[in-house]
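Work package 3, deliverable 3.1, input record:
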Amino acid sequence: MVNSKNYILAIESSCDDTSAAILCNTKVLSNVVATQEIHKQYGGVVPELASRAHQQNIVPVVHQALAKANIDKKQLSAIAFTRGPGLMGSLLVGTSFAKSLALGLAIPLIEVNHMEAHILAHFIDDENQTAPEFPFLAMTISGGHTQIVKVTDHFTMEVLGETLDDAVGEAFDKSAKLMGLPYPGGPLVDKYARQGNPLAFDFPKPKVDGLNFSFSGLKTSILYFLQRETKNNPDFVSENIKDICASVQYTILEILMDKLKLAVEQTGITQIAIGGGVAANSGIRSRLKEAEETLGWTTYIPKFEYCTDNAAMIGIVGYLKFMKGDFTNQSVAAKARYTIGS
Ligand code: KG4
Ligand code: ZN
């Protein structure tokens, strides 16, 4: 039943963050994220360890979200959860938990596509962000995804292009690893890049038709470049870290901006909404600002806590689906591969 105040509990467990949020309509009352530190020592996410950590974290994280929002579970109107895409073992934890709790409380259950949630995070009511106007182009850039989507309304989305191999965050992290930087290396590459020369070294851009991306070739060319240079000078990386990071970042940003420009050319849409952890990158932020001035685009980036994986973005989709009466039943199963619109 729709009330003037609808409380949605949202659960996200698709990768290595266990998160729970409480929304009252479009406002976030709490958004608790337990980031799994265990993966750092392995230089990347280990799926089996991720699902075990979700199992340990889920109950305390949900308790904390309810407590922070000052809401009793009896007040909840519905439970939204990430059905996919993501790691199967991780998704199973959130899915089973959401199903059991919804059954126990006898309230509706709402399934959410994680990629749609990254896009609809822009519609969270928060003084620090503005919702884009329809139609807009959404570019989701994270450690797991790289995608350009045409968004006609909240629930009409079309994937125009996506990565054929690594995600852009992986390109940052793998390049960082080759330079001996700790995981996740993206923020460090960004930090060093700010002090370096982006044109110091030249890395090739992949030739991929249309709006799809490829980042695996870049990683290989960086590997060969570093092998060649360190053969002559074993201290090459430490002596040139700022310039290498600036050049790697420049190449990655060129790839992203080229595809965005092509998407604008093909669709005539100049409202651009960015999401995902890589949206924190200072370089992409300044390139987008520049595009506002030179190309007349209007660009949107949500508050950082709604860019990285979080349950608040699951909650906003939950609320929008709740208003439509779009519920799922207890036979729903997690879906590791789950494209937008499928
Ligand atoms: O969205 P996210 O928190 O998790 C998922 O992958 O879903 O994104 C994490 C990714 C990592 O690859 C990390 O290195 C990258 O976002 N990242 C950055 C920056 N901050 C986070 N990459 C470049 N520059 C940054 N400032
Ligand atoms: Zn994500």
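The chain has two domains: 7-122+309-324, 130-301.
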